[in-house]
Specification:
- The protein is built from 8 helices and 4 strands.
- With 217 residues, the protein is of the alpha+beta class.
- The chain has a 4-stranded mixed sheet with strand order 2-1-3-4, with helices on one face.
- Helix 1 runs parallel beside helix 3, helix 4 runs antiparallel to helix 5 and helix 4 packs parallel to helix 6.
- It is globular.
- It starts with a strand and ends in an 8-residue tail after the last helix.
Amino acid sequence: MSLVFHAASGSPYVWRVWLALEHRRVPYELKMLSFDRGDLKTPEFTALNPRRRVPTIFHDGFALYESAAIVEYIDELEAPGPRLFPTDPRGRAVVRRMVREADQYFAEALEALVAQLLFTPQAQWSESAIAHAHTALSDELSRWEKIEQTMAGDFLAGALSAADFTLYPQLALALRIAKRKEGLNLDAALGPRIAAWRDRMQALDVVQRTWPPHWRT
């Protein structure tokens, strides 16, 4: 039975799972849900994920949500594509650490920026909250620029991995959202190594194939 991938366009958490599925070449059925239509509130979807959030997968009678857990599950499936985590314990631990750093620190600042610039009417924007989120994101980008394993090869932990598929969607959304406010130049916070990594990631076929549909318009 193929894996059913419940998704919504633009979520960095959805995007990381989509990248993982394509990278590992796991057969799947994509179900793109709509927040506006209330697709996440239906009894059918609630039965799969009582938190009513995406991403969620359903595979051979097994439902799973939370993107980091889904990515690890995908990595352990029999599939022809490259693995998402190294096979050696220390390498795997480093990638898992990077995933958690991105989710704990970068994503926290990103979500603060998104809350203001995407979900708050412009007339009610808090300049102090926006400035705080921008500073936090800039500080995080500086840390990623200097982190010891960063750019050990072309990617964050050497080979393309779950770390790249976690941080890149978050960064892409942060850069996109920041453009909503004139003068909020998050691109200037990119150091040369992270900027080059961003460009390499964006050029990947797997990234272009999974680019959020509504970002193309």
